[in-house]
Design brief:
The longest helix is centred in the N-terminal third of the chain and has 17 residues. About 5% of the residues lie in helices and about 60% in strands. The protein has a 22-stranded antiparallel beta barrel. A six-stranded mixed beta sheet has the order 8-9-14-15-12-13, covered by helices on one side. Strands 3-2-5-6 form a four-stranded antiparallel beta sheet, with no helix packed on it. A hairpin with a 2-residue loop joins strand 8 and strand 9. It is mainly β.
Length: about 900
């Protein structure tokens, strides 16, 4: 039975939930101190907190604070204090202060000191807390304290900070977005609006990142993106990566770093890198949390986290599971055309229309373990291991009509073929990884050595049953059984040595050796029981890749300027063997050497203006499948490499940017960028009559595009007037275009030299907002729009959505509950998304809709134990130079 959904019912539910959450706990007390206006000076001009009084001294000028009161359950209290410069004794006005829960360091209350350095925080409940004071040019100050009644913290002296220019120091709470050299950082742990989502949801909030309905990732419109996890390449297959991102909860992520113009030390062929850094470390004690999220889509996702630390040893364990169900529908049409007698016109020789429905059921689970051991004050070792499992069932039903136009016959005629296809598949994916990292610090000035050994393993298995029934030409009916098994393993050894040669300069040397082995079997049968071998589609693939990457980077600082230059070199051997009974089997190998120069210039002022200007050149080479003559056949299509026509590509990237952090506003950032590529490799889709399938099918083949370009500008802004409200905006406008020349073989065997040139302006905008109401209720909303974009003779359609959510915490954050509504206006089901092929000889258009795109999700989290998070343990590099990359 088809489900209906009422917007009136939805908003009624949100209103009821808001009312329940707001009355669940008594309102907090507080209010401004009586007898003195906030920020005013008492007679005599002395600060209201008694000038130089140190905490714990017994002076007559005691800080002004509300009188003690009789404590009742649920009461809240006032916390007051004064801030002074520890060196000059001057009062510190307009400095952000925050009361953090000592259990998990989450924000409880926030405020700003007045012109006399006085801060007053009302509505603080009983409990143990940490006061965090952060100001530009000062060391971060953390002061533990307990609240049992109205509390006077007295005078707090803040030490001026001594921070190297190469680092980024951000005032007040860690901002949601920060610039660090070539990185733009999104601090996921500081974003309350995303804590109930997945890593895929968190990626949507990172500046410039887009994740489409299929899980494909682009960064500022570029699809050549490499995903790293904890400063290492993930080495996940495409499908495994999608599953990992869709199942790992966002509250297991510390930050996401986007690098749109990677320097030499990243040793990657990709145009961009996204580095996902997981979980914070623990300073002491132990802590357990678990929760369950679910929705009416439906999906349900339980998870549990355990963290323990004792002296030099810390252990972090995490596990999660997920069940989900998706219901999709799509419609498409395509045409094969040829040149007509009149120049510039075309004749249709074949047409196809398709209507399809499919649903997907998935079970998955993640496990992760991290162990850190401090050998001594100068060295430590860490071990991490983890993996995930996914079991997926997909059922598809498709109706298709094909018309062949025989234009050269006398008289010309057409023939219609109609069929119905069912496709059912079961797949299982397993991925595991383990690694060990060792760090040796020779001093506290950045002289260090880091070594890492990491291993990985994946095994996937898929069974698929395919049946195709024609309405008239029943002799063409197809019944197939397909069994796919893939197995791969790999290992990498990394070393990075950082050596400062002065207080203003350093050299960094990196080396990475990597090896990957794959053995995949694609068994295909022309029956449903696995007897009649489908020799056209059955094959075995054996591949191996070995690479050595080395880089050297030089950094020099002058005042507020930092200049970094680097040069990387890579040698890679690739071997592949496509084993098949067909004549296009292929056994080949090749070797490539690439160079990657880069230069990055940054400038930072004392008032937190951050400027950057950088350039890099990247060489890319064809992958194995792009140069292989082997044809990989699907149902009605095939893909093949281009062994004789592909050259190495060269891409030149340049960026300029500015970022400014404001204490009482938030931050504003702007970037301008340009990319110019020659011989960029992309796939061209066409159609032809295939002698093996004996019908017209589509095929894709890679070509060097000739030249392509992308230039544009982007802005990101966070408006954060208080600790209880923020609005984030990201917008990107760019022009993408290309010009290519290629040779095409027409249906008569003639070779035609073709030229194609196209460009298009595209843009996308994303707005997120978060607010905390009544000290209990958090409200979030997000809206996203991406305009149509083009590729090589293709165009992707626009995509947009609007989400809303509510969250509330109870019992000193021991319990959290939330409810979210995804795609409120159901645009994913009504409009959907899709793409079109603009090749004049093969036109196509498809629209895909998620029928259960709009849904309500809800969940809870329980927390037990006590700990102090040491966030800088994973996120700070102030004493150890570059991370192990």
């Amino acid at each position: 039975m088809k489900k209906t959904f009422s917007l009136r019912a939805l908003f009624s539910l949100l209103l009821v939930l808001t009312t329940i959450l707001c009355v669940a706990q008594p309102p907090g007390g507080g209010g401004p101190p009586g007898g003195r206006p906030p920020g005013g000076r008492p007679p005599g001009g002395r600060p209201p907190f008694g000038g130089d009084r140190q905490w714990g001294q017994n002076e007559g000028n005691m800080p002004t604070v509300k009188q003690k009161k009789r404590v009742r359950e649920g009461d809240t209290f006032q916390v007051v204090g004064v801030l002074r410069d520890a060196k000059t004794g001057e009062y510190m006005p307009y400095v952000n202060v925050a009361v953090l829960d000592s259990v998990d360091m989450e924000l409880v209350k926030g405020g700003i000191s007045n012109m006399d350095g006085v801060f007053e925080l009302n509505g603080v409940p009983q409990g143990s807390f940490v006061l965090r004071v952060s100001a530009i040019g000062y060391e971060s100050y953390m002061h533990p304290f307990k609240v049992t009644n109205n509390t006077n913290l007295g005078t707090l002296r803040i030490n001026p900070g001594v921070t190297s220019i190469g680092e980024v120091t951000v005032a007040a709470e860690r901002p949601l977005y920060a610039m660090d050299g070539e990185k733009l950082i999104y601090n996921v742990s500081e974003d309350p609006s995303i804590q109930t989502g997945t890593t895929e949801d968190a990626l949507q909030n990172a500046p410039g990142v887009e994740v489409d309905v299929e899980g494909n990732i682009t960064l500022r419109g570029v699809s050549s993106v490499e995903i790293w996890v904890n400063d290492k390449p993930s080495k996940l297959t495409e499908e495994n990566l999608k599953t990992y991102l869709q199942t790992l909860p966002a509250n297991a992520i510390a930050r996401i770093e986007t690098i749109t113009n990677p320097s030499a030390k990243y040793a990657t062929d990709a145009e961009a890198v996204i580095n996902i850094v997981t979980s914070a470390h623990i300073k002491s004690n132990q802590f357990v949390s678990f929760g369950v999220n679910g929705s009416n889509q439906p999906f349900v996702s339980p998870w549990v986290s355990y963290m323990w630390k004792k002296e030099k040893l810390s252990i972090n364990l995490f596990a999660s599971g997920r069940y989900s169900f998706r219901d999709n529908a799509s419609n498409s049409w395509s045409q094969k055309r040829r040149d007509a007698a009149t120049e510039g016109e075309y004749e249709v020789t074949w047409a196809d229309t398709t209507s399809q429905t499919d649903n997907s059921r998935s079970y998955s689970g993640n496990v992760f373990m991290n162990i850190d051991y401090e050998i001594d004050t100068t060295s430590d070792i860490s071990f991490d291991a983890g993996g995930f499992y996914n079991d997926n069932r997909n059922d598809m039903l498709r109706t298709e009509s094909q018309t062949y136009y025989y234009l050269d016959s006398v008289p010309a005629y057409s023939q219609l073929f109609a069929d119905q296809t069912s496709d059912n598949s079961d797949s299982r994916m397993i991925f595991g990884h383990a690694g060990v990292d060792y760090t040796k610090k020779f001093d506290n000035e950045g002289h260090n050595l880091r070594l890492g050994l990491n291993t990985r393993l994946n095994r996937n298995s898929t069974e698929e049953w395919y049946n195709r029934f024609y309405d008239v030409y029943t002799d063409l009916d197809e019944h197939r059984y397909m069994l796919t098994n893939t197995f791969g393993y790999g290992a990498s050894l990394d070393a990075r040595y950082n050596r400062p040669y002065s207080k203003d300069g350093e050299l960094s040397y990196g080396l990475r050796v990597d090896h990957q082995q794959d053995d995949n079997t694609y068994d295909r049968y022309n029956d449903t029981v696995g007897i009649l071998i489908d020799t056209l589609r059955a094959y075995q693939f054996k591949g191996n890749e070995s690479s050595v990457n080395a880089d050297v980077n030089w950094t020099r600082r002058w005042g507020g300027f930092t200049l970094s230059t680097g040069l990387g070199v890579e040698g890679e051997y690739t071997g592949f063997n496509y084993i098949s009974d067909m004549p296009f089997a292929d056994d080949s190998s090749y070797f490539h050497v690439h160079f990657r120069p880069s230069i990055h210039l940054t400038y930072r002022t004392e008032s937190m203006h951050n400027w950057k200007l950088n350039y890099s050149m990247r060489m890319s080479h064809p992958r194995g499948e792009q140069v292989s003559t082997f044809r990989r056949y699907g149902e009605n299509s095939y893909s093949v490499g281009n062994p004789n026509g592909l050259k190495d590509g060269f891409t030149h990237n340049m960026e300029a940017g500015w970022q400014k952090f404001f204490e009482r506003f938030g931050n504003i950032g702007w970037e301008a960028y340009g990319r110019w590529s020659t011989n960029e490799i992309s796939s061209l889709t066409d159609a032809e009559y295939d002698n093996y399938l004996e019908r017209i099918v589509s095929y894709s083949i890679p070509y060097n595009m000739g030249t392509s370009w992308r230039y544009g500008t982007s802005i990101n802004m966070t408006y954060r007037p208080s600790g209880f409200f923020n609005v984030r905006l990201y917008a990107n406008l760019y022009d993408y275009g290309y010009r290519m020349e290629y040779d095409r073989v027409d249906e008569f065997g003639n070779i035609e030299h073709k030229t194609d040139e196209n460009h298009k302006w595209s843009w996308n905008v994303r707005v997120n907002t978060w607010a905390k109401l009544f000290d209990q209720l958090q409200v979030t909303a997000s809206a996203n729009y991406r305009s149509p974009t083009i590729g090589l003779m293709s165009e992707s359609k626009a995509r947009y959505f609007l989400n809303m959510g509510l969250r509330s915490d109870f019992f000193k954050r021991r319990l959290s509950v939330f409810v979210n509504v995804q795609d409120i206006f159901n645009w994913g089901a009504k409009i959907g998304s899709g793409s079109s092929n603009t090749n004049p000889y093969y036109l196509s258009d498809s629209t895909r809709k998620m029928l259960n795109s709009r849904y309500i999700s809800a969940g809870f989290t329980l927390r037990f134990g006590k700990m102090e998070l040491e966030r800088q343990a994973k996120e700070g590099d102030s004493e150890s130079g570059d991370s192990l990359e």
